Amino acid sequence: MNAKEKTKHILRVIGEMFPDAHCELNHSNPFELTIAVLLSAQCTDETVNKVTADLFQKYRSPEDYLAVPQSELEQDIRRIGLFRNKAANIQKLCRMVIDEYGGELPQGHEDLTRLPGVGRKTANVVVSNAFGVPAIAVDTHVERVSKRLGLAKSDDSVLEVEKKLMKLVPRDQWTDTHHRLIFFGRYHCKAQNPQCPLCPLLDLCREGKVRMKPAANRQANGIKKKLNSKG
After folding, report:
1. Is 43 annotated as a binding residue?
2. For 130, which of 30, 82, 160, 230 could close a Cys bridge (C-beta 3.0–4.6 Å)?
3. What average pLDDT does the structure give for the chain?
4. Can you name the CATH fold of 1-194?
């Protein structure tokens, strides 16, 4: 099958596996989502949600984050990795939102990436989930799955992976595909212990086939031993 057919097959399979895939970061508005995604860098969504449960009660607007010393905000998010840098970026972000955008989070992708701590991935998550603009955010799960399934090359950069997915996936499916690839990578095609024996896409996964060879060899050797013992 060609690249388009292969992609269509992959999307159908992961769509059947995770039809309800969604953003797992708890938030009630675009501003909270931006803060949550910023905090999620090198941190699990589960930990972020535990922290933001209290954080979003205490801080409801950009002004709230600027009303306290940075040291206090650091303590509020200290369970998050790189909490000092993230606290500094949050306050810088809030200052820019107030000074340059009238206190309202900008909706444009380019404007979002100007905010401290907000890179391309974060902006993609925000525009797609908060503002309904199709986008594919490439996090560690999306990158890993895309490369394992041959949708991208093993040495492709994150940006190259994103561009290839945008070409292969119909635009109206970008956001759903982003969520489903994340769920597939987070709950099935894990970094350390992927569920290769149960994977319906194993025939497309070069790494999965390599992982399965030792198991296949062990099974074959076991059969040989049984046959030899009977002989």
Report:
1. no
2. 30
3. 91
4. Endonuclease III; domain 1 (1.10.340)
189 is an annotated ligand-binding site residue: yes
Spatial separation of the C-alpha atoms in residues 182 and 57, rounded to whole Å: 28
- Using DSSP, state whether 222 is helix, strand or coil: helix
- Residues shown for the chain: 231
Domain boundaries, the chain: 1-194, 196-230
Is 45 catalytic? The answer is no
Supply the angle between the helices 140-148 and 206-230 in degrees, to the nearest 10. 60
Catalytically annotated residue among 121, 147, 164, 176? 121
Q: What is the pLDDT of residues 140-195, one digit of tens each?
A: 999 999 999 999 999 999 999 999 999 999 999 999 999 999 999 999 999 998 99
| DSSP string covering 87-100 | HHHHHHHHHHHHHH
Closest CA to 122 of 38, 28, 185: 38
Pick the catalytic residue from 86, 139, 147, 164. 139
How distant, in Å, are the alpha carbons of 141, 158, 187, 216 from that of 192? 12, 20, 11, 19
The annotation status of 199 as a binding-site residue, yes or no, is: yes
Q: Residue 81 is encoded by which pair of tokens? A: 């990795």
**Is 196 labelled as part of a ligand binding site?**
yes
Active site residue 139: yes
